[in-house]
Amino acid sequence: MSDLTRVVLAEDGVLLREGLSGVLARFGFTVAAAVGDGDELLAAVAAEDPELVITDIRMPPSFTDEGLRAALALRAAAPSRAVVVLSQYVQPEYAARLLDSGDGRRIGYLLKDRVVDIAEFVAALRTVVGGGTVVDPDVVRRLLQHRRDPVSELSPREREVLALLAEGHSNAAIARRLTVTEAAVGKHVGNILAKLGLPQTDDTNRRVLAVLAYLRTTR
């Protein structure tokens, strides 16, 4: 991660905005602008041309989906721009709209509670800037709850691996998380992809996109 990674941050809460700005500066990001609404976000991105945009979903004036609409507009104008959206609640439909922008890469959908774990938050940002896709596991779990077969055929451990896979973790990282061997994780991932009818691949982000594409289909 280069010290020159430029970020535009949009968050209407002053304390959280200042806190995020401080965290980003500590971990090698340059905050080019920190703004409080969707219009300011669009203007700041046009002026600063950042490598990464981080935005809340609900901002003034209506506090509905201003941040999401701004993020989608930015992705439409520059599909490869890295965008991470923060949400207070699990909103799978918003995640789906964001993931459908561009080619689904360089996208993150995280719950604000995740910001409490700074290491995980920074790791997620770096994954997105690096070309990956990261979706909060709670969003994945919500989608899983409403899926019928073949998701119902997944074992509890396979569901656990699936949630971590959707976060963008490699087999090695998942193995460390679950305190199992990497070979065991590889077997679980193979079983998951087979049960979901998805193609095998060695590219972690392609696996993430395949799983998320499946989960976004009609339930």
UniProtKB/TrEMBL annotation:
The modification 4-aspartylphosphate is found at D56. It comes from the Bacteria. GO terms for biological process: phosphorelay signal transduction system; regulation of DNA-templated transcription. The keyword Secreted does not apply. InterPro entries: CheY-like_superfamily (IPR011006), NreC/VraR/RcsB-like_REC (IPR058245), Sig_transdc_resp-reg_receiver (IPR001789), Tscrpt_reg_LuxR_C (IPR000792), WalR-like (IPR039420). It holds the Pfam family GerE. Residues 147-217 form the HTH luxR-type domain. The keyword Magnesium does not apply. CDD domains: LuxR_C_like, REC_NarL-like. Keywords: DNA-binding, Phosphoprotein, Transcription, Transcription regulation. Gene3D superfamilies: 3.40.50.2300. Residues 6-127 form the Response regulatory domain. One of its GO terms (molecular function) is DNA binding. This is DNA-binding response regulator. It comes from Catellatospora bangladeshensis.
